[in-house]
Specification:
With 549 residues, the protein is an alpha+beta fold. Helix content is 34%, strand content 26%. It is built from 15 helices and 25 strands. Strands 3-10-9-6-5-4-11 form a seven-stranded mixed β-sheet. A five-stranded antiparallel β-sheet has the order 20-19-18-24-25. It has a three-stranded antiparallel β-sheet with strand order 21-22-23. The longest helix has 34 residues, at 427-460.
């Protein structure tokens, strides 16, 4: 059914050595080239990611019983009378975490981190579970979410929607006023969220500026500032222990009805974002330590060993990469001291990230620093999390959108609640699953980046001939990469256009291009003004030319 001009997925069947081109078969038609859906599906197909949900799995989800019986409630801690809320982006539909707070008689606080109990509805080995394992993660593209679970589960049964009884796996923590954890418990609960807040609404309560639509939300003017106070103390302690403060702006798009970009914006984290982040980090850390810190007695040889578990680990960076980073940023006028001690090195990195704030070099230095780090992955071998400075860490708080969190929930059920449901718990099987989930996460991130690049190219194609302020973000032997200040859109200034009547020399050691006759130098982080001359949306490539002031 395909016609010329359609994008398609093909499978190569044969490519003989003496043939210039391969032969294959068309296995799917994605749509007409240039159409938004076709282009998005092409990005997913390029990375081997699913772009349609199997009808059989959707049908299986529709058959799941949504009822929460008295018997189910009796087997859980009932927290429906405790003030509980969700805080999520404005357009979110899958609410997989909620927070509760109550003041105890001794003056301490009980904070509940409640996470959707997805595995109650999704037994291991079933059709839904197998599809979720295959996907590994939800994929967040510019204009849509490609969910890991069927919509019936992620947006309805498991989503912690307000004023509905919901089943959760919860970490309930008693904290003193200084945010010190006194005790905790991990258990199954039933909750009923009182409030569904956006980050903007939550920030208004934190700031004391209540919007009219939220005036009737009783208790929040008291509860949210309290939670925020505790979260800020948790955050301060985390950085004191040596956590690295990576906080880069997220590119967001405002789209028209056809999915075309009409504005590029930045999202900067607020205290409301940090509030949720800190309590999720706390719950993940407690869960990991609960299992990883407890040793199981091995009767065969009398030794003690940890139970097989899924950790989120982040190795220390290669010292050579840190030295290379230090040499690189020295060219930009910044300094990074190196140290063999982890906590000291992290403080130096944080000092660097602080010192570049508001400069032309900020985005470049943040990007290069992240690239010098090791990649965080899933593993059964716990080596701690370098970036967060946690000796124990896992992913427990997002089972609607990450398969490793579902694995962690099942292992908790097996180890702490003595359930006999099927569960991957053999170390070798778990390690294979960890590798698969790390791979699907990386593919999803690449697709997400490509969808942003494509949308930036589509946006800039509407501004051909216009001029913008930018910063030189890369120097190569074939030209300059320039990143626009207002949108972080990046394009190439081809070397032949820089000084058409001069010869450009590439100084690799000093990251610059030098005009042989005039001596004019173009260096990393220099401010420049450019005009847009070409935008290839399909290849996600943009060409600029320099404009003399």
């Amino acid at each position: 059914g395909g016609v010329t001009g359609d994008k398609a997925v093909a499978r190569i069947t044969v490519w003989p050595d003496d043939h210039k081109n391969p032969k294959g078969e068309i296995i799917d038609i994605l749509g007409k080239k240039g159409e938004n859906n076709a282009e998005i599906h092409a990005i997913l197909a390029e990375f081997g990611l699913p772009y349609v949900y199997p009808e059989s799995v959707d049908k299986a989800a529709q058959l799941i019983d949504a009822g929460i019986t008295d018997e189910v409630v009796k087997a859980r801690l009932d927290m429906r009378q405790v003030t509980t809320m969700t805080i999520d982006p404005k357009d979110a539909k899958d609410f997989d975490d909620a927070l509760s707070l109550r003041v105890l008689e001794n003056g301490n606080y009980e904070v509940g981190v409640h996470i959707a109990d997805v595995t109650h509805y999704v037994p291991e080995g079933g059709a839904i579970d197998e599809e979720a394992y295959h996907r590994g993660t939800s994929i967040y593209l510019v204009d849509r979410v490609i969910p890991m679970l069927p919509e019936r589960l992620c947006n309805e049964l498991c989503s912690l929607r307000p004023h509905e009884d919901k089943l959760c796996m919860s970490v309930i923590v008693e904290m003193d006023p200084s945010a010190k954890v006194i005790r905790h418990k991990i258990c199954r609960t039933v909750i009923c969220s009182d409030y569904r807040l956006t980050y903007q609404q939550a920030q208004q309560y934190i700031d004391g500026n209540f919007c009219e639509s939220a005036q009737n939300l009783e208790g929040l003017p008291y509860v949210l500032p309290l939670l925020n106070k505790l979260a800020k103390q948790l955050r301060e302690k985390r950085f004191e222990r040596g956590a690295i403060n990576f906080e880069t702006p997220e590119v967001r798009f405002r789209l028209d009805d056809d999915g075309n970009p009409i504005e590029i914006m930045f999202h900067q984290s607020t205290e409301a974002n940090h509030l949720i982040e800190e309590f999720m980090l706390l719950a993940n850390r407690i869960v990991a330590k609960e299992i990883g810190g407890a040793k199981a007695n091995d009767k065969k040889n009398g030794s003690h060993q940890a139970k097989p578990f899924v950790y989120r680990v982040h190795d220390e960076p290669d010292p050579e990469k840190i030295v290379k980073l230090g040499n690189f940023i020295r060219q930009l006028g910044f300094h990074l001291r190196t140290s063999s001690k982890r906590s000291v090195q992290n403080k130096h990195i944080n000092s660097l990230l602080d010192s570049c704030q508001g400069t032309n070099s900020q985005t470049l230095i943040e990007t290069l620093t992240i690239r010098s780090m090791s990649k965080a992955v899933y593993s059964t071998s716990n080596i701690g999390h370098y970036g967060l400075a946690f000796p124990f860490y896992t992913h427990f708080t997002s089972p609607i959108r990450r398969y490793p969190d579902m694995m962690v929930h099942r292992l908790l059920s097996r180890y702490l609640m003595q359930t006999k449901a099927p569960c991957r718990h053999d170390k070798e099987v778990l390690e294979e699953a960890c590798g698969h989930c790390s791979d699907t996460e990386q593919m999803a991130q690449m697709a997400e980046r490509d969808s942003i690049k494509e949308m930036q190219a589509k946006w800039i194609s509407q501004h051909l001939g216009e001029t913008f302020d930018g910063v030189i973000s890369g120097v190569t032997e074939f030209g300059l990469f320039v990143q626009l200040k207002d949108t972080l859109t990046e394009g190439l200034v081809p070397i032949r256009t820089i000084e058409p009547h001069d010869y450009m020399q590439f100084d690799e050691d000093n990251y610059c291009l030098i005009a042989a006759r005039s001596g004019k130098t173009y260096t990393l982080s220099d401010s420049v003004r450019v005009r847009v001359v070409k935008a290839d949306v399909e290849r996600k490539q943009i060409d600029f030319v320099l404009v003399e002031e």
